[in-house]
Amino acid sequence: MKLAVIAGAGDLPQKVISVAQTTHDVHVIGLNGLCDDGLATSASFYLTEIESIIAHLKSEGIAHLILVGKVERSALAAGPIDATAQAILAQALPQGDNAALMAMMAVLNQAGLQVIPTAQVMPGHIIPSDYHCDVSQEAQDTLQVAQACHNALSPYDVGQSLMVQGAHIVAIEAAEGTDEMIARSVPFLSSDMPCRLFLKGSKKSQNKLLDPPVFGKETLAALQEAGVTHIALEELYCLLADPLEDIEAACRTANIVLMSYRQST
Hints:
The protein is built from nine helices and twelve strands. The protein has helices spanning 12-20, 50-59, 83-91, 97-110, 118-121, 137-153, 178-185, 217-226, 244-254; strands at residues 2-7, 25-31, 43-45, 64-68, 114-115, 161-165, 168-172, 196-200, 214-215, 230-234, 239-240, 257-261. It has a five-stranded parallel beta sheet with strand order 3-2-1-4-5. A five-stranded mixed beta sheet has the order 7-6-8-10-12. A two-stranded parallel sheet has the order 9-11. A hairpin with a 2-residue loop joins strand 6 and strand 7 (168-172). Helix 3 (83-91) runs antiparallel to helix 4, helix 7 (178-185) packs parallel to helix 8 (217-226) and helix 8 runs parallel beside helix 9 (244-254). The relative contact order is 0.12.
């Protein structure tokens, strides 16, 4: 299957491309102003050139695509904006990033294009549904608190990551991103609490195809520095920037317990 990888910022696109190339004919499209300069691309467009991207994919005979990498809001004002992008920005973006992504998904589907889960080409980069780890009752109770908060925040397009101690919510990820949330939580984490838990997963309404939650060893290193004792990642949908076995090994080295959870309905 011929597959387009539309690459945003960061090193994750290259990791996805490297794995996908082992099983697919990969066509790389770089997003101007976002993708790394060293990334080998077949074409490049601004994110707001949606019509040109669709036309290019069709000319290449490509019907399946993945969008991967960070996309900052500043990219929406960096280049030319076609009529389709203008409509999405005017009508959907004021309702939040997820609304804009859902509108973009609808446009792609109407054009006969299918966005596939990144995890589909990276099966070793997710927490499987049968993942099991023995954890203390305190850790299970703390995870329940974290999940309850995460679910309650879902309608507000906020809180993809949380930091929790016992029944106390220490920090909630907002527009600043995961790493910044971890950094500002450090002064409020107490070493007297045996369970200092970090949770990351998709919000209930989140577009899991265009915007999956991502976790990797760089974030794990920041959590180790912060003194976190437990990490809870959503099974199946949290994309691992590094293979699961590497994440597990890094957790063991950092003396951090890796847990999984399933989003409640």
